[in-house]
Design goal:
Blueprint (H helix, E strand, L loop, with lengths): L13 E4 L2 E3 L3 E4 L2 E3 L2 E3 L7 E3 L8 H6 L5 E3 L9 H9 L2 E5 L3 H5 L6 E3 L3 E2 L5 E4 L8 E6 L5 E6 L2 E3 L5 E3 L8 H11 L6 E4 L1 E2 L5 E3 L5 H9 L7
Parallel strand pairs: 6-7, 7-8, 8-9, 13-16
Antiparallel strand pairs: 1-2, 2-5, 3-4, 4-17, 5-6, 10-11, 11-12, 12-13, 14-15, 16-18
Length: 226
Protein backbone atom coordinates (compact mmCIF):
# COMPACT_ATOMS: atom_id res chain seq x y z
CA UNK A 1 0.00 0.00 0.00
CA UNK A 2 2.84 2.41 0.76
CA UNK A 3 5.16 3.89 -1.84
CA UNK A 4 8.57 4.10 -0.17
CA UNK A 5 9.89 6.80 -2.51
CA UNK A 6 9.12 10.31 -1.32
CA UNK A 7 9.60 13.34 -3.58
CA UNK A 8 12.20 15.82 -2.28
CA UNK A 9 10.98 17.84 0.69
CA UNK A 10 8.22 15.44 1.74
CA UNK A 11 10.22 13.33 4.17
CA UNK A 12 7.96 14.19 7.11
CA UNK A 13 4.92 12.78 5.29
CA UNK A 14 4.24 9.08 4.79
CA UNK A 15 2.92 8.12 1.33
CA UNK A 16 -0.15 5.90 1.61
CA UNK A 17 -1.10 6.00 -2.06
CA UNK A 18 0.35 7.98 -4.96
CA UNK A 19 -2.19 10.72 -4.20
CA UNK A 20 -2.55 10.34 -0.42
CA UNK A 21 -0.09 11.38 2.29
CA UNK A 22 -0.18 10.86 6.06
CA UNK A 23 1.13 13.46 8.50
CA UNK A 24 3.23 12.65 11.52
CA UNK A 25 1.59 11.23 14.64
CA UNK A 26 -0.12 13.69 16.95
CA UNK A 27 -1.07 12.53 20.47
CA UNK A 28 -3.65 14.92 21.95
CA UNK A 29 -3.67 12.89 25.15
CA UNK A 30 -2.17 9.60 26.44
CA UNK A 31 -3.53 6.48 24.77
CA UNK A 32 -4.72 8.17 21.57
CA UNK A 33 -2.78 9.01 18.43
CA UNK A 34 -4.12 10.76 15.34
CA UNK A 35 -3.02 11.64 11.83
CA UNK A 36 -4.20 14.04 9.17
CA UNK A 37 -4.15 13.15 5.46
CA UNK A 38 -3.34 15.25 2.41
CA UNK A 39 -5.15 14.18 -0.74
CA UNK A 40 -3.72 15.56 -3.97
CA UNK A 41 -7.13 15.69 -5.61
CA UNK A 42 -7.52 15.55 -9.41
CA UNK A 43 -9.30 18.92 -9.22
CA UNK A 44 -5.88 20.43 -8.51
CA UNK A 45 -6.81 21.83 -5.12
CA UNK A 46 -5.18 19.68 -2.44
CA UNK A 47 -7.43 18.65 0.44
CA UNK A 48 -6.35 18.14 4.05
CA UNK A 49 -8.63 15.75 5.91
CA UNK A 50 -8.69 16.09 9.69
CA UNK A 51 -6.04 18.22 11.42
CA UNK A 52 -2.31 17.57 11.95
CA UNK A 53 -2.29 19.28 15.36
CA UNK A 54 1.19 20.73 14.81
CA UNK A 55 3.11 22.68 12.17
CA UNK A 56 5.86 20.08 11.65
CA UNK A 57 4.57 18.95 8.25
CA UNK A 58 3.79 22.36 6.77
CA UNK A 59 6.93 22.55 4.62
CA UNK A 60 6.27 19.07 3.22
CA UNK A 61 2.66 19.99 2.48
CA UNK A 62 3.93 23.08 0.67
CA UNK A 63 6.19 20.89 -1.47
CA UNK A 64 3.12 18.98 -2.62
CA UNK A 65 1.24 22.14 -3.55
CA UNK A 66 -0.19 23.28 -0.22
CA UNK A 67 -3.74 22.73 0.98
CA UNK A 68 -6.66 24.53 -0.65
CA UNK A 69 -9.27 22.96 1.63
CA UNK A 70 -9.44 21.37 5.07
CA UNK A 71 -12.28 19.03 6.07
CA UNK A 72 -12.97 18.23 9.73
CA UNK A 73 -14.70 14.96 10.57
CA UNK A 74 -15.76 16.14 14.03
CA UNK A 75 -15.22 18.76 16.71
CA UNK A 76 -12.28 17.03 18.41
CA UNK A 77 -10.13 17.97 15.42
CA UNK A 78 -10.63 21.67 16.12
CA UNK A 79 -7.65 23.33 17.78
CA UNK A 80 -5.04 26.07 17.40
CA UNK A 81 -3.61 24.41 14.28
CA UNK A 82 -6.70 25.46 12.29
CA UNK A 83 -5.70 29.12 12.34
CA UNK A 84 -2.10 28.28 11.46
CA UNK A 85 -3.22 26.13 8.52
CA UNK A 86 -5.42 28.94 7.20
CA UNK A 87 -2.64 31.50 7.60
CA UNK A 88 -0.01 29.33 5.89
CA UNK A 89 -2.07 27.87 3.04
CA UNK A 90 -5.27 29.93 2.80
CA UNK A 91 -7.21 26.69 3.17
CA UNK A 92 -11.00 26.93 3.20
CA UNK A 93 -12.32 25.20 6.31
CA UNK A 94 -15.20 22.73 5.96
CA UNK A 95 -17.07 21.56 9.07
CA UNK A 96 -20.44 20.33 10.27
CA UNK A 97 -23.01 23.01 11.00
CA UNK A 98 -23.91 21.05 14.15
CA UNK A 99 -20.45 21.78 15.56
CA UNK A 100 -19.86 25.28 14.24
CA UNK A 101 -19.54 26.79 17.73
CA UNK A 102 -16.88 24.26 18.73
CA UNK A 103 -14.86 24.91 15.58
CA UNK A 104 -15.15 28.69 15.50
CA UNK A 105 -13.36 28.95 18.85
CA UNK A 106 -10.24 28.37 16.73
CA UNK A 107 -11.21 29.38 13.18
CA UNK A 108 -14.43 30.40 11.46
CA UNK A 109 -15.60 27.69 9.06
CA UNK A 110 -15.91 28.77 5.43
CA UNK A 111 -18.23 25.92 4.47
CA UNK A 112 -20.82 24.31 6.73
CA UNK A 113 -22.52 21.06 5.78
CA UNK A 114 -25.82 19.67 7.04
CA UNK A 115 -26.75 16.90 4.62
CA UNK A 116 -25.29 14.22 2.40
CA UNK A 117 -24.05 15.52 -0.94
CA UNK A 118 -21.12 15.56 -3.36
CA UNK A 119 -19.43 18.95 -3.35
CA UNK A 120 -17.49 20.82 -6.00
CA UNK A 121 -14.23 19.22 -4.89
CA UNK A 122 -15.50 15.73 -5.65
CA UNK A 123 -15.92 14.91 -1.95
CA UNK A 124 -19.05 13.04 -0.91
CA UNK A 125 -19.98 14.46 2.48
CA UNK A 126 -21.78 11.86 4.61
CA UNK A 127 -23.12 13.05 7.99
CA UNK A 128 -22.68 10.22 10.52
CA UNK A 129 -23.73 11.61 13.92
CA UNK A 130 -23.17 9.51 17.00
CA UNK A 131 -19.54 9.71 18.04
CA UNK A 132 -20.27 13.43 18.27
CA UNK A 133 -23.31 15.39 17.03
CA UNK A 134 -21.55 16.57 13.88
CA UNK A 135 -19.41 13.55 13.06
CA UNK A 136 -19.04 13.25 9.29
CA UNK A 137 -17.40 10.80 6.88
CA UNK A 138 -16.01 11.65 3.47
CA UNK A 139 -15.83 9.48 0.35
CA UNK A 140 -13.60 10.25 -2.64
CA UNK A 141 -12.37 8.47 -5.74
CA UNK A 142 -8.61 8.27 -5.56
CA UNK A 143 -5.74 6.92 -7.63
CA UNK A 144 -6.38 3.93 -9.89
CA UNK A 145 -10.12 4.33 -9.37
CA UNK A 146 -10.03 3.16 -5.75
CA UNK A 147 -12.45 4.77 -3.32
CA UNK A 148 -11.19 6.21 -0.05
CA UNK A 149 -13.53 6.48 2.94
CA UNK A 150 -12.40 8.91 5.63
CA UNK A 151 -14.24 7.80 8.78
CA UNK A 152 -12.84 10.18 11.42
CA UNK A 153 -13.48 8.57 14.80
CA UNK A 154 -16.79 7.00 13.80
CA UNK A 155 -15.17 3.64 13.08
CA UNK A 156 -11.54 2.53 13.27
CA UNK A 157 -9.45 -0.61 13.62
CA UNK A 158 -8.00 -1.24 17.08
CA UNK A 159 -4.60 -2.62 18.10
CA UNK A 160 -5.91 -6.20 17.85
CA UNK A 161 -7.28 -5.64 14.35
CA UNK A 162 -10.91 -5.40 15.46
CA UNK A 163 -13.10 -2.87 13.67
CA UNK A 164 -14.47 -0.70 16.46
CA UNK A 165 -17.20 1.91 16.80
CA UNK A 166 -16.18 5.28 18.22
CA UNK A 167 -18.52 5.21 21.17
CA UNK A 168 -17.62 7.27 24.25
CA UNK A 169 -19.88 6.76 27.29
CA UNK A 170 -21.59 9.94 28.48
CA UNK A 171 -20.52 11.70 25.26
CA UNK A 172 -21.68 9.71 22.23
CA UNK A 173 -25.27 9.03 21.15
CA UNK A 174 -25.58 5.25 20.99
CA UNK A 175 -28.69 5.06 18.78
CA UNK A 176 -27.41 7.70 16.37
CA UNK A 177 -24.03 5.99 16.07
CA UNK A 178 -25.62 2.62 15.40
CA UNK A 179 -27.81 4.14 12.67
CA UNK A 180 -24.80 5.90 11.13
CA UNK A 181 -22.79 2.70 11.02
CA UNK A 182 -25.68 0.86 9.40
CA UNK A 183 -25.84 3.52 6.69
CA UNK A 184 -22.08 3.25 6.09
CA UNK A 185 -22.34 -0.50 5.56
CA UNK A 186 -24.04 0.13 2.19
CA UNK A 187 -20.86 1.72 0.80
CA UNK A 188 -18.16 -0.21 -1.05
CA UNK A 189 -14.89 1.57 -0.23
CA UNK A 190 -11.44 0.19 -0.99
CA UNK A 191 -9.41 2.12 1.58
CA UNK A 192 -10.53 3.12 5.07
CA UNK A 193 -8.78 6.12 6.62
CA UNK A 194 -9.63 6.93 10.23
CA UNK A 195 -8.46 9.83 12.33
CA UNK A 196 -7.97 7.90 15.56
CA UNK A 197 -5.11 5.44 15.56
CA UNK A 198 -5.18 2.80 18.25
CA UNK A 199 -3.22 0.14 16.35
CA UNK A 200 -0.12 0.47 14.21
CA UNK A 201 -1.77 2.45 11.45
CA UNK A 202 -5.02 4.16 10.56
CA UNK A 203 -5.23 3.54 6.80
CA UNK A 204 -6.35 0.08 5.71
CA UNK A 205 -6.81 -1.40 2.25
CA UNK A 206 -9.70 -3.87 2.44
CA UNK A 207 -8.74 -6.06 -0.49
CA UNK A 208 -11.13 -9.01 -0.58
CA UNK A 209 -12.55 -8.14 2.85
CA UNK A 210 -16.18 -7.05 2.80
CA UNK A 211 -16.67 -3.56 4.23
CA UNK A 212 -20.15 -4.59 5.40
CA UNK A 213 -18.55 -7.29 7.55
CA UNK A 214 -16.16 -4.72 9.03
CA UNK A 215 -19.09 -2.49 9.93
CA UNK A 216 -20.96 -5.43 11.46
CA UNK A 217 -17.92 -6.09 13.61
CA UNK A 218 -17.85 -2.44 14.69
CA UNK A 219 -21.54 -2.51 15.56
CA UNK A 220 -20.81 -5.55 17.70
CA UNK A 221 -18.48 -3.44 19.86
CA UNK A 222 -21.32 -1.10 20.85
CA UNK A 223 -22.91 -1.55 24.27
CA UNK A 224 -26.39 -3.00 24.44
CA UNK A 225 -29.19 -0.46 24.11
CA UNK A 226 -30.96 0.60 27.26
Amino acid sequence: MTDSTNPPGTSTLTPIRTDLWQTQTFAPFPGLSTHAYLWTAPSGGNILFYSPGRSDDFDAIDELGGAAHQYLSHRDEAGPALARIRERFGARLHASAAERDDVREFAEPDVLFTERHVDGNGVEVIPTPGHSPGSTCFLVTGADGLTYLFTGDTVFRDAEGVWTAGFIPEVSDLDALRASLESLSALEPDLIVSSARVGHRSAHLLGATSWASCVDQAIGTLPAAG
